[in-house]
Design a protein that fits this description.
- The protein is of the alpha+beta class.
- It has one domain.
- 47% of the residues lie in helices and 13% in strands.
- The chain has 6 helices and 4 strands, in the order E-H-E-H-E-E-H-H-H-H.
- A 4-stranded mixed beta sheet has the order 2-1-3-4.
- A hairpin with a 5-residue loop joins strand 3 and strand 4.
- Helix 3 runs antiparallel to helix 4.
- It is globular, with a radius of gyration of 14 Å.
């Protein structure tokens, strides 16, 4: 039975897929179903989700159907991971939360510099 929590990410982005592999290794209990948004079940299963949203940040749906994006998604994912509670707690602290959002935004905008190698990232770096 698939996990009720779902992470949508850019499966064409080398950087994103490497990050998801790390998350998958951390997810020893299979709490999260990790789906590239390009997969047939990716966007079609989430009519509330715009293509632009998944291009800007990973999207995480928890078991209740609530959606989280970017660093907020990572915080919610950490809550479900073995020994992830301290990480989630730290990411919930006001100043850390703001810094995490800034860092995630910078990484998302510059992922082509971090080894993305996809045509989608090439397009995103053009002015």
């Amino acid at each position: 039975m698939p996990a009720p929590n779902e992470l949508l990410y850019d499966g064409d982005c080398g950087f994103c897929t490497r990050c998801v592999r790390v998350l998958a290794a951390w997810d020893r209990y299979g709490a999260i179903r990790m789906v590239p948004f390009q997969a047939p079940e990716g966007l079609s299963g989430h009519p509330d989700l715009a293509f632009e949203d998944v291009q800007k940040a990973m999207q995480f749906y928890d078991a209740t159907g609530k959606r989280w994006a970017g660093s907020e998604a990572f915080r919610e994912i950490a809550r479900l991971m073995p020994l992830g509670a301290p990480v989630a707690f730290l990411l919930g602290l006001p100043i850390i939360r703001q810094l995490a959002a800034l860092a995630y935004g910078w990484i998302a905008r510059n992922r082509y510099r971090l080894g993305c190698n996809s045509s989608g990232c090439e397009v995103s770096r053009r002015p």
